[in-house]
Amino acid sequence: MSVLLSRAADLDAADPLAGFRDRFLVAPGSDLLSYLDGNSLGRPLTATAELMESFIRDQWGGRLIRGWTDGWLDWPLTLGDRLGAIALGAAAGQTVIADSTTVLLYKLARAAVDARPGRNRVVLDTDNFPTDRYVLEGIAAERGLELVWISTDPASGVHPSQVAAVVDERTALVLFSHVAYRSGWISDISEINRIAHAAGALTMWDLCHSAGSVPISLDEWGVDLAVGCTYKYLNGGPGAPAFAYLRHDLQDSLRQPIQGWMGHRASFEMGHGHEPAPGIRALLSGTPPILAMVPLHANLDMLAEAGIAAVREKSLLLTDYVLEIADELLAPFGVEVVSPRDPERRGGHITLRRPGFEKFLEPLWDSGVIPDYRRPDGLRIGPAPLSTSFTEVYQGLSVLRDLLEKHR
């Protein structure tokens, strides 16, 4: 174990991103030893707390309703463009911040299937995140569609050959996750898009477990539609608003179904009948959640400074290190790695599997170690590159090892 700890110290000493850890807020008296759940909820920045206080006192408190004329109304678009440029590989005018992931999934998926009349099939996979599956099940019931399920191994993800075997001239839409929420498997977006487009189908991608952690090139990959959340690696806070991407050339032909005043071409005319705004603004529905968007300013600043390539490089080092510890310290206790070992196919987290893991969650939390648990028996280890050290990973997994020893 001392060799692994020494290796953690060496990795921390050589880490060019180590200084970013000091920017994250630590609560007074916190018992946190090891936070390994950055793939579920990112930690807050000190700058975020300062921005929130300043916004509440000076902008909300000082400007009140006049703040809407100071640029708040454009935040969904301006922040969307910044997110697109910094983390998504998306040119301006294609990304918007709004709603929740679930609502945006519904908006885009409904618009997509309606834009492919005469096609009645939607392709999805059995191990995608529940929201994605539930939303498509609801749309299928509404629109009389057939769902075509691809069975995926929870230890991996969707392969292009599986997509090629089921898409055809009846397929309207395919929807998958870029990084599988359970295993961390990275899908081959470019190849899957090529296969779907050859059949005339639209493609939609869930970026919740990749945005801010894995380099993304939506424009280059030919993605049609995408959604994702901002509270994981983007540190937007609990329930932070989601984002949607809609490719430029599709914006005139796709019509989202939740027609609210903010998506109208002239919101303050208050006129009769809905006339969609031009471009990406048409995806908006209700009043933008301005207060909930404030943290994104600080976190996009930080991500732009760090650079997504450097974040990815450290992420791979962190997950490689998790694999080392798992193989040496945890495998003797029956712990199995069910995430890709190939770095080209591995996202930002590692899932460990062992029957009975659920009973370890409470004692881990009591010890200040916070991983993530996914039924039936998976413990997800998600070190966020900008806030997690290698020593922190070692400390957390050492506590897990001690618990396994105690309950051998």
List keywords for this structure.
408 residues; alpha/beta; 7-stranded mixed β-sheet; 4-stranded antiparallel β-sheet
Compact description:
With 408 residues, this protein is an alpha/beta fold. 38% of the residues lie in helices and 13% in strands. The chain is built from twelve helices and 13 strands.
Number of helices, where a helix is a run of at least 4 consecutive DSSP H or I residues: 12
Main sheet: strand order: 2-8-7-6-5-3-4
Low-confidence stretches: none
**H-E order:** HEHHEHEHEHEHEHEEHHEEHEEEH
Q: Give a count of the beta strands, DSSP E runs of length 2 or more.
A: 13
Distance between the termini: 19 Å
Mean pLDDT: 96
Strand content: 5-15%
User: Radius of gyration, Cα only, in angstroms?
Assistant: 22 Å
Structural class: alpha/beta
Taking the sheet with the most strands, its summary is:
7 strands, mixed
Quick one: overall form?
globular
* Quaternary structure of the protein: single chain
User: Approximately how much helix is present in the residues?
Assistant: 25-40%
